[in-house]
Amino acid sequence: MDAPTDPREPEDVDALVGALLTASRALVGVSARSLAGVEDHVTLAQFRTLVVLQGHGPTRLSLLAERLGVGPSTAVRAVDRLVAAGYADRRASDRDRREVVIEASAAGTDLVRAVTARRRAAIERIVRAMPPTGREELVAALTAFADAAGEPDAPSPESASLLGW
């Protein structure tokens, strides 16, 4: 049985959901603009696949599909296109030669890093336009939101593994 809720919670939750939806529209816009110039090379879904591969390293197809939240056939199509374009590599697993793993190629890694750098710069411009008061609380709130969603922390710009999604 669910624990009793605070009578104020529905209003708080509604306000928070509304604010997050509005913020997510802004972030989707930033994400879309950061992909400008590469949309001739990869689709949004293919870019997401590269980000997951970049963040997790060599991955079995079934695990990649699970991490993407898609069926194996959808993951195969994305991987096939990325391999054909030179953005991903497919090879036998070091653990079990019968198992195939997929990983981002050097070109795929470079693509993720370039898009992530553009996205980070755009988000930084927005953050700098915000009033300084409340930034610490926003960091805490967004961190709690990401934790609740099961998202890993965004690495620093110097990190070798940028989760650019």
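the 2nd protein, sequnce then structure:
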Amino acid sequence: MLVELSTPLTLPSGAVLSNRIAKSALSEALGDRVQAPTQDLVRLYGRWAGSGAGLLITGNVMVDRRALGEPGNIAVEDEGHTDLLREWAAAATADGAQAWVQLNHPGRQAPRGLNREAVAPSKIAVTGAPGVFGKPRALASGEIEEIIHRFTTAARIVVDAGFTGVQIHAAHGYLISQFLSPLTNKRTDEWGGTPANRRRLLLEIVASVRAELGPRTPIGVKLNSADFQRGGMTEDESTEVVLALAGQGVDLLEISGGNYESTAFMGAVDDGVKASTRAREAYFLDYAERVRRSLTDSGAELPLMVTGGFRTRSGMSEAIGGGAVDVIGLGRPLIMEPELPRRLLAGEAGAKPVKPRRLRIKHLEGMGELMWFGVQLRRIGRGKEPDPQRHPLRNIPHYLRTTGLIGRPARRGLVG
């Protein structure tokens, strides 16, 4: 059968994506001062609900309000914000799209200003970001079991609120990714020491969430193809993780790569993504094809999604039609063109090229770009249109003010 962007996809759970385009997780950071959803977030997802995408995946929702990755994170520990979660879910699903909540724990990637302490598999700090992240404390075995319970509880709460599924974030150097990597997991107990033990946390979280949600609710996983660091998790080890996930009823595997020490996931493809992949538009297609072969050889089925680098309809159609992936993930293009999926499904060429003007200050370029896109998200959340002409220098004080980093009293609720 000829598979196109408009072809529906039935997932292993039986849930159906109406097409092959997904809004991938973005750092929306639109939670309030007690980590609850806001009306800006509801309006933002109401706009994306009409985008035409078959799947919307939310940005980071943390499972512990004592462990935040950035200002404005949503945290779900209990039913305290159920009414707001229901509003958010209703907005996201208003046009019939699947809407999944991405669940996460930052581990050692927990900024000092937001958290009393950071925890991790081992006492190994993030390098290359002096002053941002402190040295973490190694988790005790009982605390790891508690984290599994937190993922499970959060999954139940968001699905009860009306979201149609969840995605477990096991990429980009956050806690589960830290357990998977031999660079950051130096444990010698049942949670480390061998590849099988290092992937135990991820597999136990998936199994626990599946047992809680039942067989008909979609569960996705976001996984690094590799850490792009010497001594980190390799593509071979990552493929072993994929094969293990295929046996646990995962519905969709999203492939990404890198972490805060090697930022392949931000598009810094020179950190290790192959030249052949760069030429093919998307960052992780070569790895996706390798995973597909391994799954086929083992007789397993696991739908694959790749996010990062897709901009043209022809590139997306080639990846889908050639069988490399089942779903195309779009992130930043949907900030500047919230209705882009409808254009693509109608046969139009692709995303309009939009990039912020450069600051011409080497050490601020990456942060300036992140802030620029963050301010565009906030514009949509306030009912405005994105502003591609906005100068990035205007964004820095605006971003710091709206995220609470300046101009507000100390956010005591974030460190309790």
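Residues 18-354 form a domain with the TIM Barrel fold (CATH 3.20.20.70). Residues 141-160 form the longest helix (20 residues).
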